[in-house]
Amino acid sequence: MSRFLPRALMAPSIVTLFLWMIVPLVMTLYFSVIHYNLMQPGETGFVGLENFHYFITDPDFWPSVMHTIQLLGSVIVITVVLGVGLALLVNEPFPGQGIVRVLLISPFFVMPTVNALLWKHMMMNPIYGVLAHVWQFFGLTPIDWMTDYPLLSVIVMLSWQWLPFACLIFITSLQSLDREQMDAAGMDGATRFDKFWYLVLPHMGRSIAVVVMIEMIFLLSVFAEIFTTTGGGPGNDSTNLAFLIFKQALMNFDVGVASAGALFAVILANIAAVFLIRMVGKNLD
Amino acid sequence: MLKKKPFPIVRTLSAWGVALLLFFPLFWLGITAFKTEAQAIAAQLFFTPTLASFVEVQERSNYLLFARNSLITSLGSTIIGLLIAIPAAYSMAFFPTKKTRDILMWMLSTKMMPAVGALVPVYVMAQTAGMLDSLPALVIVFTLSNLPIMVWMLYSAFKEVPKDILEAVRLDGATVWEEFRWVILPLTMGGIASTGLLCLVLSWNEAFWALNLTSANAGTLASLIASYSSPEGLFWAKLSAASLMAIAPIIVFGWFSQKQLVQGLTFGAVK
């Protein structure tokens, strides 16, 4: 086997991905040190680190970093915990198991924009939404979700979308659990909790790692849900980093500052990647 | 002999309960699409279904054009993606070097940067190439943004091929192509299929690039839906009808392929 072929086979993927990464990165790097505002085409020139300074001292900056982390953390915890519970619930055969599985997985296939509009208008609308009707039924004052709990609303939508994904991966994992070992443990007097804690959970470790990894990749840069529902507001209450960069680029027309922000996001993504490798990487070989 | 245990009724009921609860928003979207605007606002459960909203959606915007664009971009990016990713994953799985892990991790890290960070450069490039609002541009972008995940999934699928089969074939002097065509491909068809399925779903649902790189010609269903989020488009029955028409194809597709898809998504982590 020559060493040439394996490289030739990898080349298309690596070259295209490299270009896909490096060309925008270099352009972004360039934009980030010049004055580049679409509304002031006359003013150009090198400004050094001014854009970075401007982006980091933006009052929306730290909140948006915190929101990015809160969003990521909450959705991962919610989907993993509920996903494990749900998987345990539907794993054993029961009447209609097939239909239940089909119902459970459906939200995963819903387009993010549809997900957002569906929750914003039909579920969470404070006057006509289904949740408002439920609240009224119990004699409570309906909640104006998007205004009063914007970040929580986004977390709810995202959890709804990702719970099915987590759950079904866990079901697949549970199906390969060693039944004999479980029965043996039962005969040795292990309680339900013992079995869960010492047998089931360790067995699911790898699939939990997979779920965390995939969700981390997709949730770090959540955009469509925020764009279509809260628009980052009210104020900056649901602005995450991706949305803040968008705001600078397309609402303030300041490509320079947006580029500085994008480079910051690259750094954050790399920090996350390092965490991911430590936490998950070795689990997947 | 295994004694058949009666299924616990509480368990069955709670499983059904949770499933129906999670499905409820979609059910609601589905029935709202068949209501009049007045019924939609009043949150009525019983009503005479009407197709008026669907008709109006088609009249207001050319649904079929958007649907065609979605189909072309999803299928196109999936096929091209598989053609590029399969050789790479094959090479990494069967001819691993010390750098293989690093390459995989690097690929994954390209996926973690917010797309919005690359928006201006990509927009400028598309504009320079005269490819704004064109399907090829969208296909390229979708392919590249799905590529890391595809290589990963295929890599895990190829990794599971038993080593001794491979050695036997190589001893028999099979060429790389023969080895791939007659041994690897049949054994990993499931993994390849689920990779393709996921890529289809992701491309179909992709909204960010579709919104920012297209307008009238190459818009996909995701961008059609976004146009309904503007205040003047705020009619729930029509919004629901448009949404239903956008998600129904991929959901039905998902129902039929869910087993396959989930199996592949476990990244070989579940044996």
From TrEMBL, chain A:
This is Sugar ABC transporter permease. GO terms for biological process: transmembrane transport. It is a multi-pass membrane protein. Its main location: membrane. Residues 65-276 form the ABC transmembrane type-1 domain. The keyword Lyase does not apply. It is found in: Cell membrane. Belongs to the binding-protein-dependent transport system permease family. The chain crosses the membrane at residues 12-33, 69-90, 102-119, 149-172, 208-227, 255-277. It comes from Rhodoferax koreensis. Pfam families: BPD_transp_1. Keywords: Cell membrane, Membrane, Transmembrane, Transmembrane helix, Transport. One of its GO terms (cellular component) is plasma membrane.
UniProtKB/TrEMBL annotation, chain B:
GO terms for biological process: transmembrane transport. GO terms for cellular component: plasma membrane. It is found in: Cell membrane. The chain crosses the membrane at residues 12-34, 69-91, 103-123, 135-155, 180-202, 235-256. Residues 67-257 form the ABC transmembrane type-1 domain. PROSITE patterns: ABC_TM1. The keyword Transmembrane applies. This is Sugar ABC transporter permease. It comes from Rhodoferax koreensis.
